[in-house]
Amino acid sequence: MASKSDSRSTEAKAVVTANRLKDGRVVWLTADQKWVEDFRTAKIFVGPEIDAGVAEGAAAEKRLEVVAAYAVDVDVTEIGPVPVKTRERVRVLGPSVRTDLAPPALDLFPLIPDARTA
Predict the structure, then answer these.
(1) In three state form, how does the secondary structure of the chain look?
(2) Residue 68 pLDDT > 90, yes or no?
(3) Contact by Cβ (8 Å): 29, 42
(4) Of 94 and 63, which is predicted with more confidence?
(5) Which residue from 2, 43, 61, 113 lies 20 to 30 Å from 69 (Cα-Cα)?
(6) How far is residue 68's CA from residue 60's CA, in Å, rounded to a whole number?
(7) With contact defined as beta carbons under 8 Å apart, do 73 and 14 qualify?
């Protein structure tokens, strides 16, 4: 797992994501270091804190809780974090083919204009 700390500013904001090892679900790291499916409860790491979040992801990988943990750049909005990249928006919103499997983050659609067309 690579760190992007060299290219991030001190104001950069990110959340940490991974896939839960037991079922493959996309999960997000919370402030109390738990992995949850609800993106809205993810801890927002700022600047140098991002490396600490990625380190916790690496530790969780060693404990065989998650796989492929990494930081996701976000913009902070009035309702919480929104991923900067479309790829990460798809991870938040769930499968684009089987919407019946999507997590309960559908209220993010108004803030993600290209969510249904991504």
Answers:
(1) CCCCHHHCCCCCEEEEEEEECCCCCEEEECCCCCEECCHHHCCCEECCHHHHHHHHHHHHHHCCCEEEEEEEEEEEECCEEEECCHHHHHHHHCCCCCHHHCCCCHHHHHHCCCCCCC
(2) yes
(3) yes
(4) 63
(5) 113
(6) 10
(7) yes
